[in-house]
Amino acid sequence: MAERPSPNHGYPGRLLVFEGLDGSGKSTQASLLGKWLASKGYRVFFTEWNSSVLVASTIRRGKKKGLLTPTTFSLLHAVDFADRFDRQILPPLRAGYLVVCDRYSYTAFARDAARGCDPAWVRTIYSFAPRPDRVFYFQVPVQVTLKRKVASRLKISYYEAGMDLGLSEEVRESYERFQGRLKREYDRLAETDRFTVIDAARSVEEIQRDVRRSLAPVLENFPTGAQLLHDR
User: Fold this and answer.
1) CATH code of the domain covering residue 55
2) Residue 214 φ/ψ, nearest 5 degrees
3) Quick count: other Cβ atoms within 10 Å of Cβ 27?
4) What's the pLDDT tens digit per position in 134-149?
5) Total domain count for the chain?
């Protein structure tokens, strides 16, 4: 059974994207789905945001020294994503893999707009990125993500809270305001870009069942590794 090119991007593989606020559970769900797909015999490649070594250290240094303006933040992440796309996403797509992305260009669309960048300008920078076959948006109230952060005892980072924007001198208040901006951008993108919206305030098991169920049309007639070997 040969791979049929995706009508979205023309490559044999399929591009599956997970988006949402920090603490929405998207990374957990992406990991679970990748493992489940592999257990079913599919060829799977997993990739995540900021996984390019090209500019990761530059971004870390810029954050540490407080040198990143919204525009430089946007441009550095665009370079990082372009390298990640060229090295990690495109090759397995061409090879017929299911590529599971923990965040894609939509993360930049939401974050950069929330930081005051022109949305149309950001879209132009990422115009090389093809449309995914499915975008799962894990929709959750900001207060839920904050509670999860507190429960996990993970420190809220300076940029995660949007402290660089001067929204508030208090970390939690700044977090709520900035993440609120992000959520509004994501909710808007969910409509304009036709995301599959997942209620992420439920249990991990319930959410994963929904993700697998909604993915069924994408997997229909898509070959596993064993089927490809058999055909050869």
Assistant:
1) 3.40.50.300
2) -75, -15
3) 17
4) 999 999 999 999 999 8
5) 1
